[in-house]
Amino acid sequence: MRAYTVTGALTLMSTAVAFSDSSPWVLLSTSKIDQSLSVNQIQTSPEAIAFTKNFLSECPTDEYLIVTQPGVHAADFWNRDGCAMLHLCEAAKDARVKGKYTVAEVVGDVTASGFVQHIKASCNKNGKVAKIIERPLESLSGDRSQALGTNDASIALDLGMVSSDSYTILFYATPREPLYDSEFIEPLHMDVRRDIDNAPSLHRANETERDTRPLFEKYQFFTPGIFMGIIVALVLLSILGAGIRGLASLEVSYGAFDKDMGPAAQKKQQ
User: Fold this and answer.
1) CB-neighbour burial class of residue 85 (10 A; exposed 0-12, middle 13-18, buried 19+)
2) Residue 177 and residue 68: Cα distance in Å, rounded?
């Protein structure tokens, strides 16, 4: 985290880490806010909206300025020259401001907050007529710090109109506008595909000559290895045949197998 030394109600935003779907939240009022500056600097959008509406439910002031800046993060408030939104920072240091509620990172969608309707209903309930100025700013593009300074200059007049001693300023960020999605990509692809389909096909003539040789001339069936195997097989078969014929030529009677050739028979012969 990068730390900045600043003064005013936006000091706690100096150490913020910008999440992809988070935004700063600034509530300044000449009426006291029952909330210390040591508030948790990472809150969900329902928490920040509920706290703000709870404060506004009493219609605490006569004038209200609601400023929305799409796609801004807490880190965008500070550059090498200091505060990027000088008029807002000066408003936070105004001596008339008695209540400050700032959150560096409010995570979640805040588009359906409905603060204008809530203020009107609350003031009507309390028998008051409130002056409400709603100022949506342009999206940040190019140099974010410079664009933020330009937007700050556009709300300088609104801040100057808050000349009474009873006013409330609410600043928060809305989601960035979605990127433009071209609707002509698919027709373009269809046109390209149609052009490819209509392109003339190029068929090359088959110039390979047909081989009309006989089968045994085209392919070699009897290789040297096959001949060597056949010769070895014939030699082995001839040896086997000679052995079988030798065994068959032996003339041994069956009685020879019944003759007693033990030690007792040998003694009798002696």
Assistant:
1) buried
2) 13
Which strand ranges, in their side-by-side order, compose the sheet holding 167-172? 42-44, 99-107, 22-29, 167-172, 63-68, 131-136
| Separation of alpha carbons 74 and 106, rounded Å | 10
The token pair that represents 152 in the structure block: 């700050």
Look at the block and give the residue holding tokens 């506004």: 56
Nearest residue to 68 via CA among 54, 96, 88: 88
Tokens (6 digits) for 73: 């993060």
Q: What is the pLDDT of residues 219-237, one digit of tens each?
A: 776 778 888 999 999 999 9
Note whether 25 and 103 are within 8 A (CB): yes
Report the DSSP beta bridge partners of residue 264.
Answer: none
Distance CA 240, CA 169 (A): 114
- Give per-residue pLDDT as tens, 43-61: 888 999 999 999 999 999 9
Give pTM, 2 decimals: 0.57
Element (H, E) at 144: helix 144-154
* CA distance linking residue 255 with residue 241, whole number of Å: 28
What is the distance between the alpha carbons of residues 187 and 39, in angstroms, rounded to a whole number? 54
Q: What are phi and psi of 11, to 5 degrees?
A: -65, -40
Instruction: Give the three-state DSSP class for 119.
Output: helix
Confidence label for 137 from pLDDT (cuts 50, 70 and 90)? confident
Contact 152, 86 (CB under 8 A): yes
